[in-house]
Amino acid sequence: MTSDQKTVIVVEDEVDAAEMFAEMMRINGFRVVKTYSSGPAIGLISREMPDLVILDVMMPDISGLEVLRFMRREPQLEKIPVIVISAKSMPSDIKIGMDAGASAYLTKPVGFLDLKNTLKKVIADTSPA
Question: What pTM does this model have?
C-alpha cells in the first residue's frame, strides 16, 4: 500500500450495494473498509480516520444521519467528507441530509459516473488550498 493512498469507509447494510460502492472506490484508487452496520461505524471511523465516508441513511440499528451528526460534533471527525447515499429521494430528505452535514447526497440507484464525479468534487472541495 502506498502512503498516499486514500482510505474510504463504506457504511451500507445491503451487502450487494456495499460491495458495488467498494468496487467503485477501489477502481478510483482508494483503500476500502466496509461495515454493514452503523453501530460499529463511529468506532471504525474514529480509528481509521478515513479521507472519505460513504454513508447509507436507512440502517437497521442507528440512522446514518445520526452517525453523520455525531461526526460533525467531534472535532477530529468533523472535517471528514461524507457522501450520503440513500433511497430517500424527496427534496425534504435531501435537505435533512445536507443540513446534518453531508458533503454530498446521492439517491439510489447510484451510477458509477455519478459517484466518481461526486467523489472528485467532494475531495477537491476539502483539499487544502
Answer: 0.93
